[in-house]
Amino acid sequence: MKISLRLSSGVLFFFYASALILWLVFIAIWVVYQKKWDTLLTQEQTLREEILELEEYGKWTLDYVKIEKGLTFLSKNKINEQSRVELTEQIWKISRTYNIDPLLILSIVAQESHGNPKARGRMRSGAESGAFGLMQIKLETAKSIGRRFGYKIESPEDLMAPDVNVVIGTAYLMRLIGKYQNLKHAIIAYNIGPGLLDSHLKKNRPLPTRYYERVISKYWNLVSNSNFLDLR
Questions:
Q1: Do residues 87 and 116 make contact, with C-beta atoms less than 8 angstroms apart?
Q2: Which residues of 8-32 are buried (b: 16+ CB within 10 A; e: fewer)?
Q3: Do 104 and 223 touch, CB atoms closer than 8 A?
Q4: Got the DSSP string for 147-188?
Q5: Where would I find the H helices in the chain?
Q6: What gap in Å lies between CA 99 and CA 189, rounded to an integer?
Q7: Which of 3, 72, 139, 180 is the most exposed place for a label (fewest CB within 10 A)?
């Protein structure tokens, strides 16, 4: 009887020892695979981030090409190569800083000046409107906005510099977008002025949409033109 109990105790001890060893082995294997799994997850996350960065870089690169080709097409050699390169970089940086589609900027350039950096705006009567350059900015508006960006605007000639004009014009457009929280209203205000637009909105009058429609039409032409990137 005593021998039987001793054997049972030995068997139990062997069983528990084996179970403990197996558990320890399982834990060791689990730790190893958990580390491998964590490493794979980290690598996967890194890969995803790199793919997103490449996609974003590709988008920025494509935007740059679109801007350069668009300026070449719109200006029809009215802007020399050096100025065009500088302006392309300027619009590219602006579009990233303000998170605005660069083709929208080009659409307004196309509508306002047809890509002519020396353009002087005229009213239907033939008298000068007081708007200058690529985005047809008025001097007083340019002076006000220019101070915020460190530009000293003193004369119409200052607004004939393409890079200065586009910075001021885009900043003005972004100010209007911020004011109205509505792209359509902002574009209309860019054309007729915020004072007149506010008056129309306050009195619930129909808005003049012809300018807006032309800008949007030019925008979609740039976006959808299948040969856009092949322009020479």
A1: no
A2: eeeeeeeeeeeeeeeeeeeeeeeee
A3: no
A4: HHTT----SGGGGGSHHHHHHHHHHHHHHHHHHHS-HHHHHH
A5: 2-75, 81-98, 102-113, 139-148, 162-180, 183-192, 194-202, 210-224
A6: 20
A7: 3
- Residue for token pair 């100025």: 83
CB 135 within 8 A of CB 112: yes
Tens of pLDDT, residue by residue over 9-41, are 666 666 777 777 888 888 888 777 777 777 766
Cα–Cα distance, 184 to 176 (Å, whole number): 10
Question: Strands of 120-122's sheet, edge to edge?
Answer: 120-122, 128-132, 137-138
Closest CA to 136 of 106, 166, 107: 166
Helix axes 81-98, 162-180, angle to 10 degrees: 20
Rg (CA), the chain: 33
